[in-house]
Write a structure and sequence with these properties.
Blueprint (H helix, E strand, L loop, with lengths): L1 H4 L8 H15 L7 H8 L11 H9 L12 H11 L9 H4 L6 H10 L8 E4 L2 H9 L3 E5 L21 E3 L2 H7 L4
Parallel strand pairs: 1-2, 2-3
């Protein structure tokens, strides 16, 4: 993504970036024996990730009161497949691909708010990565941090509670739904 941001690569969607990285890792590790089909299947594993146990029920509660949308660096096809596989109740699917920028570029957050027909201050960004939330806050969005102790961030470690800069801090999506008053 940084190579795209710096202009070293033209706009390239997440699946293609992952494939470039996969081919590089296989080459560096001397694992060239994977044929093209096996590489493509491995690259699409992102579409078959199991959801966190609290995600579907918590998001369903929140969706009863608010519009629940994705905002991922993952491309639209990848997100749609993952949502189907995991049976997640998203009502809108927004992707960095829509704005041809990757988070944390402000264009992604501003574009998301605009796509929803809202001003940034009317949108809550919910994330497990504090830098993502800080970027959303920098354009005026509300930030809700959800702790995911085994979710690795860009630095390789998990972002943990507390997050005093977040507008809301939650242990999981059920806790967030409680805090938002969602039945």
């Amino acid at each position: 993504m940084d190579r795209v941001r710096r202009g070293e690569l033209p706009w390239t969607n997440f699946d293609r970036l992952h494939r470039i990285s996969l081919d590089q890792v296989l080459r560096e590790r001397g694992l060239e024996g994977f044929d093209l089909d096996a590489r493509e299947q491995l690259n699409l594993a992102w579409e078959r990730l199991p959801p966190w146990p609290d995600a579907a029920p918590g998001l369903a509660r929140i969706a009863g009161r608010y519009t629940v949308a994705t905002l991922s660096n993952g491309n639209r096809a990848q997100q749609a497949a993952l949502i189907r596989f995991a049976d997640l109740p998203f009502q809108r699917l927004l992707s960095a691909e829509d704005f041809r920028h990757y988070k944390p570029d402000p264009e992604v957050y501003l574009g998301a708010a605009s796509s929803l027909g809202l001003d940034p201050f009317q949108v809550m960004m919910v994330a497990a990565h504090k830098p993502d939330l800080r970027a959303a806050q920098s354009v005026g969005m509300i930030a809700a941090f959800i702790e995911r102790p085994v979710e690795k961030g860009p630095d390789g470690g998990a972002d943990l509670l507390p997050d005093p800069e977040a507008d809301i801090q939650a242990r999981d999506f059920m806790d967030l739904a409680d805090q938002l008053g969602c039945p």
